[in-house]
């Protein structure tokens, strides 16, 4: 077997990179659990028919077949074909419906899993990647306050990560839909889809497409672009939108409702976590199912990476005909984030292995003794491994050094034990039943190297 | 959308079941890290050509294609087709070769991921399931002592789980191959494959197949069956095998080497973890690549479940033509284990959510105040959520009770705070800056209900 090469779009990390990724995943899980979200996992596959219901995304689905499938098998029946999930929202909707009789609503869940998309791989775009989602879903009615709270949960999670500072940009579908309707558009979704491309195609591109796809006149185009240009760190956007609406003679009840909601999001965020959430009236989110607050998040100084945490409110995550399940949720693109941290060397893991102590072996005959020392350390929560061989002491030190293992345990000829910090070279007498490493050395640490870290 | 139904072979758990699964996964990871194993993850896919190199398993592979793949795309080129991995060994071998220049050998890694097999689902047999693997792989030469140590790492891991007691059954390929060769068989692998089916087809089935597939005579069949019947909890198997070999005139250097190795595994295990490891000369392990010690593990009283943790030593996990990478590893079938625990009600999670405290809301106007209390608790590591609505107090208690949340936080009209243990009904004055729940309540606990637990 010749040396294999990486598959484009399917990122893998060396052990030191995996420590970074695992650290990020641990912090996310910890934060979500502190907020009372229950963890679930769904299977990797969904019926293809469920995956392609939203036309937008069907190009990207990976379909499965068994290598030895035969005519008459499930795989030959299009109604029974399975595909890999491309996000965690479609599976969560299905899970909610399937188990609604066994879940307690409002149901707060987090879900951290890999998803797959058959897209052409690019920088920050993968075919296999981790998403970390939180959603609250209700049976019947979902209180508005969750639209205020969920981005703040994500703000807590992101603030705990070794990443640069970030900004959560928030908008409300009711504002833009109400405004567009007030401007005289019938197909507000078409307008929204064009505005969603603003960053990519620029104002001139938007103008052309609005004219062609939504039959917009010059005044309407100007109003749409003006609305999308409103960004405020406080609730002053309300006055700006009202002024713009006044100029264009727009009055709409849904617009007013949206303004009140977004104002509440901004005001509460300013109380609880000042400086993190801003109003950005250009945020559209392409997916049609959002109906209220929508969110995007950028890393400050890494805006080109795109949004690392997005989501919104949907009135109908799922319905079984009798009941509907409205919800609100956000999703972090973990792999995109971790890939940036690793590939640009923004973070550093303190070592490549979990081991705190390498227990040296002075002769193969005494390996059992070294093994007992390691077991005593482990029993007290100190990760320990025994040297692979009774090589010269210098070689055993190098084994530890190459992996970043901070301590080497030595059983001396007189029967006493000592532990050596190989970073400082300091050595002290120690007992395997009592010695404790500094707390900072207990686990590999991951630190942000860049200055201007997220405080 | 009608209520969806579960997909056979793709297990999913309700939140309380996921707490059990997550608890098991956490303990495994924790134990592996305490022993100094570095965690890695590999992508879910491998080139199909790599997956089907071992003929035995090719029926089970799921092949991927993009829904919109066109002629000329990678998916149309058989050499570039991708399949889902069916175990974690093939991907680990590929990862080792691909990154050999960046890894430190001997490389100890753990890997906990889902794998997929297109098998017909049955009890304990899934199409998607978790495996938890540990392996040590060396460049060039792997010291024998790892064959002694690795099953003891798994014994530590399994002993920490909420499962019944277990037995690790060990054999050595050199014993059986040397013995078969000494009996006059040329194709020892063929004999091994038949013996591997002993439990399934019984002695008569083995007799027939040995005669047909290996040309065995009556004395050879008797010798093979006699060898497979040797099971000892100590090193007395050595004398039994030697006696049997003497009866049949078998002398073989490899047999002697295998006996010495297995003796060392049993002797060391008896020193470090008495009663867990037994010698069982019937253990064959179907896969051809094992070359030394082989392992299987059964849950005592649940032998019908089959092996929950298996593996062995292989001289050549991978080779790039210049270097070879021998290793030894074991794999736990986590889903098989967890499914048994959940479906037979052997374990119980103390609650359905991570939340320790539900902070009550007396009126929607004071939600912010409740949110601040929850934030204070979280800052000290206490999982807290705020009540979804300012409903009657009894309804808020029921919200906690249904989920198993042990404490409700109450802000009283006089401005003081109290916390109520809803299990006992006891209520005490409390400050969000100082109150601590009992340590046992900090996280959901998972306990084995069955008597005869693994001590």
How would you describe the overall organization of this protein?
2 copies of one chain form a homodimer. In chain A, the strands form 4 sheets. In chain A, strands 1-5-6-12-11-10-7-9-8 form a 9-stranded mixed β-sheet. Chain A has a 5-stranded mixed β-sheet with strand order 15-14-16-17-18, sandwiched between helices. Chain A is elongated and about 95 Å long. The longest helix of chain A has 20 residues, at 15-34. The model of chain A has no long low-confidence stretch (mean pLDDT 93). In chain A, strand 14, helix 12 (367-379) and strand 15 (384-386) form a beta-alpha-beta unit. Chain A starts with 14 loop residues before the first helix and ends in a 7-residue tail after the last strand. With 455 residues, chain A is an alpha+beta fold. The first copy, chain A, has helices at residues 15-34, 48-51, 89-98, 145-159, 173-183, 188-195, 198-214, 218-228, 237-247, 253-272, 334-343, 367-379, 393-403, and strands at residues 38-39, 45-47, 62-66, 82-84, 107-116, 128-137, 166-172, 231-232, 277-280, 293-299, 309-319, 324-333, 347-349, 357-359, 384-386, 407-411, 417-421, 427-429, 446-448. In chain A, helix 5 packs antiparallel against helix 8. At the A-B interface, helix 1, strand 1, strand 3, strand 4 and helix 3 of A face helix 1, strand 1, strand 3, strand 4 and helix 3 of B.
Compile the SSE list and pairings.
Two copies of one chain form a homodimer.
Chain A: H1 15-34, E1 38-39, E2 45-47, H2 48-51, E3 62-66, E4 82-84, H3 89-98, E5 107-116, E6 128-137, H4 145-159, E7 166-172, H5 173-183, H6 188-195, H7 198-214, H8 218-228, E8 231-232, H9 237-247, H10 253-272, E9 277-280, E10 293-299, E11 309-319, E12 324-333, H11 334-343, E13 347-349, E14 357-359, H12 367-379, E15 384-386, H13 393-403, E16 407-411, E17 417-421, E18 427-429, E19 446-448
Parallel strand pairs in A: 1-5, 7-9, 14-15, 14-16
Antiparallel strand pairs in A: 2-4, 5-6, 6-12, 7-10, 8-9, 10-11, 11-12, 13-19, 16-17, 17-18
Helix pairs in contact in A: 1-4, 1-11, 4-10, 5-6, 5-8, 5-10, 6-7, 7-8
